[in-house]
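name: query_chain
kind: protein
chains: 1
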Amino acid sequence: MNSSAATLATPPGDPIDSERWATLQALEAATGSGFLDEIVSLFVADTPRRLSGLKEALAGRDAATGERLAHSIKGSSSNIGAPHVAAVAAELEALLARGSFDGTDALLARLEAELERARRALIERVPG
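structure:
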């Protein structure tokens, strides 16, 4: 886990950063736009496609595409307040940036597990 993820206000069992979530809720309350529902829906729908692409890139030993997809997952996870997902994606991104595939299977398994935890927690927070 990178140090930025470790400093977030996230209880050990909570996959969603409480401070980031509070900020998103405040923006939702201020705008009344329904954007929180929308970004959660987009994250829940889009991330599996990115993950699938990442798996394909790893299977094909395509470090550049894998790095780009890991970076994308890292960014969207950070934006929505899923620091554990972002941390694992950052590890994978850094590994692929070096052109290395050593340890990608284990990182991919961790990424999938953290994504599932985040997905469940987001759906509980914003039942759609």
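note: The chain has six helices and no strands.
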